[in-house]
Amino acid sequence: MVTPLSKGVCKLTATGYDCSDQNLQAVPGPDGLPSATKILDFSFNHLPALYNTTFSRLTQLVSLDLTRCKINWIFENSFQNQKHLESLILIGNTLMFVADDALIGPLALSHLRLSQTSMDDLKLIPYNNLMSLETLELGDNDIHSLRGLQQFNWKKMTTLNLQLNAIQNISAAEVAVLQNGRGLSMSFKSNSIVYIEPKAFELVQFNSLDFNDCFSEADISVILAGLAGVKTNILSLGVFEQSQPSTIKAQSLQALCDITVKDLRFQLQHFSDITDTPFHCLSGLEKLDLTRAHLDSLPATVGQMKSLSKLILNENKFQNVCHTNAMSLPSLTALSMRGNQHKSLLFSDGCLSGLSKLELLDLSHSKLLTGTECCEIQLTGLSQLQKLNLSYNSQMKWSALPFREVSELRQLDCSRVNVTYETQCAEGGPFQNLHHLKWLGISWRFLNLSCQSNLLEGLQNLEHMSLSGSYFKDGVISNPEMFKHVPLLQNLVLSDCGLVSIDRNMFTHLSKLTHADLSGNRLVVVYTNVFYSLEKVLLNFAMNDIKIVDLDSVKGLGEESKLDLSDNPLVCNCSNVEFISWMQSNVNKMTNTDRTRCGESREALTDVHLNCTSFGILGIGLVIVFIGIAFIIIWKVREKYKQYENV
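^ thats the sequence. predicted structure below, dont judge the formating
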């Protein structure tokens, strides 16, 4: 059913007007949509045809979204009055006819999105007045060839998306015009490529080339032969989980010797023999992504990639970090083995000792084994390391000063790791040499809080700390001296720690704190009196056991402060009426109000209406009434007594 025009269907947003999904069959009049509108979302409405009068009143349009408006026909000069139009989105419309002069009018149309429009020929695109085009999206259509590319201005074009089409053959003549471009990002993702003429893309310079999931009909060597002579920053040659299985043979990669590339991606590919891969052809490669490439080792010949600075080995099957042979890559600045899928990953002593330039090391989610102690010996030689992620591993025993070798660390994540750290109470903490650390994540077992005063010693520049998932004895966090070493801390996360109580002086040292996350605990009280200031702070008490909120605990919140009480079993009766009334008057100080509900009825607190009488006021009123009645009775008795005296 199509809804006729109605006043006020368009909503003003932060960037423009939203008239989407209203079943409109025409553009609203001036009362519903101002003529000066610059950004308009008109998607999911009903406009079977576009004429030169459809948007004639909206002369200031800069961006127009017509996604899935059931458009079939676009006639001449449909946008002749939109001189300033820069972005036009026509995604999901079955275009049966588009006039050659349909886009005459905009002087600087930069972004044209025609995905899922049933296009089957590039020549059907109305190229008149597209000389300023920078982005052209034609994904998920039925385009069979690249004939027609010459009609566009490739000196301006930066993005051409041809993914999910029916392109099988590419000739040198069709793509020769791309030599006029510089820095183009072009996607052929999920086209079943059969043949590319050798050296078809020779002398073309790309920013990125995407041939992911293009190997169902041809060997990867066919694509690489067609790319001989090309220069690109990024080359993607991966597959997806649902892609047809394929295996890359070493000889199929020989054509890499004729390609200049900085960032090469082989996600989810299978390699028949990684040992014979021609790494010598990749001496200029800076980043190699082998995510889930079913690898358990890399050969020593990876050292031939002299310029490689980033190596991504996520979700593979390595048994030992040493098996990456990363130590033979002296220029390496980032190594990621996140989510290793073998039953365990051994981090042996000295595996990475030659990587003096390494700045990032990610071994998270990998069932890491570090031997008897970690991590001083394992991190030897990594003096420039700035980001270390050891999170979501099993158990780890730290030496007295585990990060002695990496004093330049800015970010350390050991969250969800069962850390054992044995030291005397009088000694300094494990981080005492990490004076530059800004971000710390750790899950700790606080069994003896009297020994934790020095835990954070040395972290005077720390700004963010997550203790999520830590264990506090008896669910009580006390000993405020623990935080005296982090005076610059701004964000503190204590979620999912099983807390039932907080010492009232716990955070008095944290004068810079602006965000405290205490969600997912077992707190029954909103602890606001434990913070240094409530003027500008975000407090997250979501998912606790809070039922009744003391008004005194929230009325001190500043205008720029926020409180999150979502997913608590809040009581919605007269015992909580003062807080409910306060919240309804201070919605601007609450977050996630849609999930701040009554524990039993699940009604949003913003919608609760209670009829409660104050027993205090009622009591005072009754006393006054009784006094009044007593006064009247006494007065009448005295008057009657006077009458008897007169008699």
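The radius of gyration is 34 Å.
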